[in-house]
Amino acid sequence: GLGYVEEIDTLFAEVIAACDGERTLRQAIDSTLAAMGAAPGSEPEPTAEIMRQLVQEGFVLPVRAGV
Questions:
Q1: pLDDT 10s digits, 2-55
Q2: Distance between CA atoms of 42 and 62, rounded to whole angstroms?
Q3: Where is average pLDDT lowest: 7-11, 31-35, 56-60, 63-67?
Q4: Is 43 exposed, middle or buried (0-12, 13-18, 19+ CB in 10 A)?
């Protein structure tokens, strides 16, 4: 198994699941918020920083536009 443990809340677990390579991160966040009954753009302030950390650690891979 992985030698790494990270605690994330339901929002981030759902956002990661919504990152399917077909939608932007903004779309993944907004669709997750909508499914949770929250308004688009109402994500917690550290969302971008947490997602950057997940990319740096290899848990989420960025997709280049046009690829």
A1: 677 778 888 888 998 998 888 888 999 999 999 999 998 899 988 889 888 888
A2: 23
A3: 63-67
A4: buried
| Token duo for residue 30 | 């907004």
CB atoms within 10 A of CB 12: 20
d(CA 14, CA 31): 9
**In whole angstroms, what is the distance from residue 39 CA to residue 37 CA?**
7
Nearest partner of 63 among 10, 35, 24, judged by Cα: 24
* CB-side neighbour CA atoms (13 Å) of 23: 14
